[in-house]
């Protein structure tokens, strides 16, 4: 069963972080982005995993936040990708850490 979750991460640097995340993942994942919006596809078998299906991260930069939405193939997949996103974003936003991640889970 598909799982989804969204979070609005408060930051004045949403566009910068969106572009850093997308450039980082573009080395080995399918990525499309502009300074305002982006998407990343995580294949079901990325890094030796064996998830039921692919997952997608969509990003939207706002003046005061970065909106992130994950659509994953299972609850475990969603949880793993939340952690990966948070670790990467915290690394890029080290001057602002700790960032807030008030995830809102939903049925996809």
Written account of the structure:
It comes from Azospirillum formosense. InterPro entries: UCP028291. This is DUF2218 domain-containing protein. The chain has 108 residues and is α+β, with helices and mostly antiparallel strands. It has 2 helices and 6 strands, in the order βαββββαβ. The protein has a 6-stranded antiparallel beta sheet. β4 and β5 (65-72) form a beta hairpin. The radius of gyration is 13 Å and the shape is globular. The N and C termini lie close together (8 Å). The model has no long low-confidence stretch (mean pLDDT 95).
List key phrases describing it.
108 residues, alpha+beta, 35% strand, globular, UCP028291, DUF2218 domain-containing protein
Radius of gyration, in Å, reads 13 Å
| Number of DSSP strand runs | 6
Q: What is the N-to-C succession of helices and strands? A: EHEEEEHE
The residue ranges in which pLDDT falls below 50 over 5 or more consecutive positions are: none
Annotation field: number of helices: 2
Strand content: 35-45%
Strands side by side in the biggest sheet: 2-3-4-5-1-6
Biggest β-sheet description: 6 strands, antiparallel
Protein name: DUF2218 domain-containing protein
